[in-house]
Design brief:
CATH topology of chain A: Stationary-phase Survival Protein Sure Homolog, Chain: A
CATH class of chain A: Alpha Beta
Number of domains of chain A: 1
Structural class of chain A: alpha/beta
Number of strands of chain A: 11
CATH superfamily of chain A: Survival protein SurE-like phosphatase/nucleotidase
Largest sheet of chain A: 9 strands, mixed
Helix content of chain A: 10-25%
Order of helices and strands of chain A: EHEEEHEHEHEEEEHEH
Radius of gyration of chain A: 20 Å
Shape of chain A: globular
Oligomer: homodimer
Strand content of chain A: 25-35%
Largest interface: A-B, 75 and 75 residues
Strand order of the largest sheet of chain A: 3-4-2-1-5-6-7-11-8
Distance between the termini of chain A: 68 Å
């Protein structure tokens, strides 16, 4: 009796650092054996783009040959646009999983909200595609992704092996910038309440006009051991399950019980 | 015995349609009597910018005299940048409340994630400033904001009158595009799972190259009567309490109980 062969999964890969970055190449290499990989990613850096979409101008896309036998497209859009274009114009179907990254730099705690990497993953999750964003805590252009590749391979294989995956599954994975032997494990966490205390760096241009650079000091206000910030500080890989229903149900109940807006 | 005078609240106003839009002018007019209003808003349309921030280029800002005696600044940044600049460089303190809008067009359901209006409000909430985003379900440049102004005034006065306001309070208010007499009331709701089914409109430019416009059909998958989409369809103003902790605690518990990633 023949055993039914499970169809090879289609793995959509995107990022926000741009299609030529070392991080997305490392992600492709990490999962290449796990399914049919298709890359659709921005043609320029899109860090900090959040969940931006392009509505006031049209989009372009071009097929590239930079990943050997892996199909790859660069687009003029944001990370979220890339996911939309991939589903509608390239794959003509939903992929089995969407992977975003590996980002050069952390996307833990509140940064999930600003992150183009995580917004692309969230877009896929909204569309009903299980999705994972990966970030390495190293902003450098030539960051070392060796340990990250092992971790990505492990996490993606385990998710693909699951019998039943929630179609809205969305994980925010951050990886400490240390060699594999120093990594203590993978920890399921909550998003820490940690953020940047902004201070703009004020300068004067050659025409005598003021301009401002965004800078800031990162502060963690959440002292629990169940947060992503704690895990990363202690050399664990952090995995935060993320949702796109932003309703604050606690406040909803409070407001319903109050006399407000009657 | 003298009664202690409560200090006049500082009301920060921003938007994503740009500082010259009718919607932000209507918001200023609606709350002018309720405190000291300061406007800090983008110098160009920023719809669909999500939670984008400007990190790769510097920001500019200029004082404008377009709202009579109300202090107003336009910036070259995104809605989120405007909130950060307002706190650090203009007010030099946190305002008592931040209001964003009134947006020309709906920001209900999943649109809260793409919306520059709501991202500005969320940024303020992250900073510990109670915040409300307002949107009118009318995309027109010259939309009628008369009913919206009454509703905004009512909601903001009631929040400012509360004895104790959660510093992270964040509300997403959407207003049906009908005259005041047709509005049935204000309803506390949850975010509906409703979204656009995207289809890119493919065209050929004069050079013979393809380009794509984002289009889509809006579909509501959430049939409950407790959603913002239901409320708006039935001529209620919808108020969705929003949070910035995106942790999916249900999935977190499931993953913790599983053998994944051990």
């Amino acid at each position: 009796m023949a055993i039914a062969q499970k169809k090879e999964p289609i793995i959509l890969i995107t990022n926000d650092d741009d299609i030529t970055s070392k991080g997305i190449r490392s992600l492709v290499e990490a999962v290449k054996g796990l399914g049919k990989v298709v890359v659709v990613a921005p043609d320029k850096p899109q860090s900090g783009m959040g969940h931006a979409i392009t509505i006031g101008s049209p989009l372009r896309m071009n097929k590239l040959n930079i990943f050997g036998d892996v199909e790859a497209w660069q687009t003029s859009g944001t990370p979220v646009d890339c996911v939309k274009l991939a589903v509608d114009k390239i794959l003509h179907r939903k992929p089995d999983i969407c992977l975003s990254g590996i980002n050069h730099g952390a996307n833990h705690s509140i940064n999930v909200i600003y992150s183009g990497t995580m917004s692309a993953a969230m877009e896929a999750s909204i569309e009903g595609i299980p999705s994972i964003g990966f970030s390495l805590m190293d902003y450098k252009f030539d960051a070392d992704f060796d340990a990250s590749k092992e971790i990505v391979h492990k996490i993606v294989s385990e998710i693909l092996r699951m019998k039943k995956v929630d179609k809205h599954l969305l994980l925010n994975v951050n990886i400490p910038a240390v060699p594999m032997k120093k990594i203590k494990g993978i920890k399921i966490c909550k998003q820490s309440y940690a953020k940047y205390d902004e201070a703009f760096d004020e300068r004067i241009d050659p025409q005598g006009k003021k301009y401002f650079w965004l800078t800031g000091i990162f502060k963690n206000f959440d002292k629990g051991k169940d947060t992503d910030v704690w895990a990363l500080k202690n050399n664990y890989v952090s995995v935060v399950p993320v949702q796109f229903d932003l309703t604050n149900y606690t406040l909803k109940t409070q407001l319903e019980k109050s006399n407000l807006f009657k």
